[in-house]
Amino acid sequence: MRKIILSVLGLLLIVGAFFGAKAIIASKKNFRPKAEKVVKTVFTEVVKNGTVPIVVPANGNLRAKRRVELYSEVQGVFKGGSKLFKTGTAFRKGETIIRIDAAEYAASVQSAKSNLYNQLTSIMPDLRLDYPDIFPKWEAYLNGFDLAESTPELPEMVSEKEKFFISGRGILTSYYNVKNLEQRLSKYRIAAPFNGVLTEALVTEGTLVRAGQKLGEFINTDVYELEVAVSKTYSDMLKVGEAVELTSLDSEKTYTGKVVRINANIDQATQTIQAFIEVKDNSLKEGMYLEANLDAKEEPNAIEIDRNLLLESNQIFVVRDSILDLIDVRPVYFSDKKVVIKEVPDGTTIMAKPLIGAYTGMAVKIYEEKTTDTQGS
C-alpha cells in the first residue's frame, strides 16, 4: 500500500512540475528593443558664386639677377690690391677686383707706341712740303701724343692722296697694332662692372694665373630672381608684370615680386614652363628658398571647396529637405587641397565637410552652431 501511495505522489509531482513549468514559460514576456533610426549630422554651407582667383603655387631658390663669372684672358702673377680677393668682399662699380702683373707686357706696348711715334715724326717734313693743307692737323695730333696715355685716335683722312700717303708709310698698320696691344693690356685688370659682392674666390695673392682660368664669381645684391617651374596648363594665364607674393621657408616674412620673363620653351621631361620672378629686399640672400603664389587668372561664377568633397564622377553632395542628393559640377582648377568648380546654382546647400558612408537618399540633420550668451556681473 505504501508503494502505491508513493508512486501516486511521484506521478502527481511530475505532472505538477510539468504544468508549473509550462505556466512559467507562458507568463514570460519577450522584450525586444525597438531599433532607433540614427540620423547623422552634416556640416553645410549655402552656395554664393563669385570670382575665384586661381593661384598657382611654385617654389625655387633665389639667384642674383646680375652676376659675372670672372675668367682670366691673360697669364701672369696675381697682385694684391686695396681690397682682399675674398668671398664677401664688396666692390663698387669701377673698382679693381683683380690685377695681374703686366710689367713685361706693358713694356712691349710702350715699345710699339714709341715706334708709332717715331713713324709719325718721320713723315712730318714730307707733309709740310707736299701736303701743307693737312700738315697742321697731323702736327696737332703728334703734339698731343703722350706715351704715358692711351693712343689717341688718328685724325680723319678726307682725301685719297692723304690715305695713300699715310698708309704707304705704315702708319695705319702700326696704329692698329698698338691699339690691339693696349686692348690686351687692359685685360690684366678686371674692374667691377657694377656694385656687388664677391661670392666665389678661387685664387689668392701671388698665384700664377693662366689664360682661361676661372678666378671667381661676382654678383649684384640689389635685385634677385626666382626661377619657378609652372605647368604648361597655365602658360596662357601667366603675364609679365603680374605681382607675386613670396614667402620664406619659415613663413616669417613675405616679399612682393613681379613676373619679368616667361620662357617660350616647354621642358619636354616635366612639361613645365620656366617663369622668372624679380624681387628686391635687403634681407634676401643668394640661394634662399622661397615659395611663390602666382595669380594665374580669375574664374568668374565659381566656388572653391575641399578636394575630398568632389567625387570621381565630378559630383558633390547637396542637402535637399534633410536628404542627401548628388549634382553634377564642372571642375576648372585643382590645387593640393582645394578645387574650383562651376555650375552650382546660387542658394544650393552643399555638404561642407566629408561624411563617411554618405549616399544618395540618406537622411541627415544639418549642424547648427549653438551660441551661448554669457552675462558678466
- Any idea of the CATH class of the largest domain? Mainly Beta
Strand fraction: 35-45%
State the end-to-end distance.
96 Å
Q: CATH superfamily membership of the largest domain, which one?
A: Efflux pump adaptor protein, beta barrel domain
* Rg over alpha carbons: 46 Å
User: Numbering strands along the chain, what is their spatial order in the largest sheet?
Assistant: 3-12-15-14-13-16
Q: Which structural category fits the helices and strands?
A: alpha+beta
Order of helices and strands: HEEEEEEEHHHHEEEEEEEEEEEEEEE
Number of strands: 22
Shape: elongated
The CATH architecture assignment of the largest domain turns out to be Beta Barrel
Helix content: 10-25%
Low-confidence stretches: 371-377
CATH-defined topology of the largest domain: Elongation Factor Tu (Ef-tu), domain 3
Any chance you could write out the topology, listing elements then pairs?
Elements: H1 2-27, E1 40-42, E2 44-46, E3 50-64, E4 67-71, E5 76-79, E6 90-91, E7 96-100, H2 103-130, H3 135-143, H4 160-168, H5 171-185, E8 189-191, E9 196-201, E10 208-209, E11 214-219, E12 224-231, E13 243-248, E14 254-267, E15 272-279, E16 289-306, E17 315-320, E18 323-328, E19 330-334, E20 338-342, E21 349-351, E22 364-366
Parallel strand pairs: 1-22
Antiparallel strand pairs: 2-21, 3-12, 3-16, 4-11, 5-7, 5-10, 6-9, 7-8, 9-11, 12-15, 13-14, 13-16, 14-15, 16-20, 17-18, 19-20
Helix pairs in contact: 2-3, 2-5
